[in-house]
Amino acid sequence: MHPPLTLHKHPMCAQIIEEFQKCHLDHPFAKFIGECTDLKIKLDRCFRQEKALKRKANFEQSKKLRDRLQASRKETAETS
C-alpha cells in the first residue's frame, strides 16, 4: 500500500507517480496481474528515499531546537 499519490506532497517522485497512474489508466485489467509492478517498486523506493530525507531534516531541526532549549535553561539557571 502506498500513500495518496498527490504530486504536491511528493515532488521528488512526481515523474514516477505520473507514469504509475498512466500505467493504471492504460492497463485497467492487466494492472491486476502485474503489468505496473515495476513502476510500483520504483515508486516504493522513491517514497522510502523521500521519507529518509524528511526524517534527516526533522532530526536536524529537532537537534537545533534541543540545543537552543538547553542553552536557554542554562542561562535561566545561571541568573536564578
From TrEMBL:
It is found in: Mitochondrion. Keywords: Disulfide bond, Mitochondrion. GO terms for cellular component: mitochondrion. InterPro entries: Cyt_c_biogenesis_Cmc1-like (IPR013892). Pfam families: Cmc1. The keyword Disulfide bond applies. Signal peptide: none annotated. Its main location: mitochondrion. It comes from the Eukaryota. The keyword Nucleus does not apply. Belongs to the CMC family. PANTHER family: COX ASSEMBLY MITOCHONDRIAL PROTEIN (PTHR22977), COX ASSEMBLY MITOCHONDRIAL PROTEIN 2 HOMOLOG (PTHR22977:SF1). This is COX assembly mitochondrial protein. The lineage of its organism: Eukaryota, Viridiplantae, Streptophyta, Embryophyta, Tracheophyta.
